[in-house]
What we know:
Elements: E1 4-10, H1 12-16, H2 24-37, E2 41-47, H3 50-55, H4 66-90, E3 95-101, H5 109-124, E4 127-133, H6 140-144, H7 148-158, E5 162-167, H8 175-179, E6 188-189, H9 192-198, H10 211-223, E7 227-232, H11 238-243, E8 250-252
Parallel strand pairs: 1-2, 1-5, 2-4, 3-4, 5-7, 6-8
Antiparallel strand pairs: 7-8
Helix pairs in contact: 2-4, 7-10
Amino acid sequence: MAKKRILLKIGSNTLTKETNQISRGKIEDIGRQIAELKESYEFIIVSSGAIAAAKQFVKLEHNGQEINIKQALAAIGQPHLMRIFQENFRELGLFTSQCLLSYSDFEKPESQENIKNTINILVANNFIPIINENDTVSTDEIQFGDNDKLAALTAALLQVDLLLIATNTDGIYTKSSFKNGEFQTITDISQITDLEQEVHSGKSSHGTGGMQSKVEAATIAQKASIETWIVNGLKDHFITDALNGISKHTKIKA
Length: 254
């Protein structure tokens, strides 16, 4: 039986558990779940967190533009981030690989083919691709959405079975419940236009995305006939709980 393919997108808020540093415990939690599910599912990860990883180690001296500082931090933090993944996953018998992509890669048919072929070979050989935006050459994600769009484009290109976006809420809340602090999750929805009316704008604390960028990601996925789930990555076992139907999360139908 063919394994189902999941593209897991992890934002900075999830990886830091809303603190100022990358949480090894959270990365271990993700690894443990992947190890538990590996007979039935294959995973491709799109991970933010390079800038957050760098901020633990350095304070840059500069008089440049803010965006260039962030690009420099991303360059410093990316190897640290990969090392933390590698160390934690290796202890669980999982192998990792790094793929840095930028938006222009999705515009050229030749690049698309190369991405697809490379990732398929990695996955076939039990290496988990960990994808991030190539922040030193491109600033799109730093400015516009914490890898949500990158995750959706990658999911569509690889024709995955499920796009799983981990964030810091139990999915998308209805606007009215958000306003009065009751936080009621929209569990199943197929019309994205209905969802857009419920989404409150605003950025997350570490990431550059808010719910708006997740809805845009789900729109890209839906056009490619892929279901998107928005789950609470701050909770332990968030992947297995979502797959077993025991957590509150938002499912946006294909």
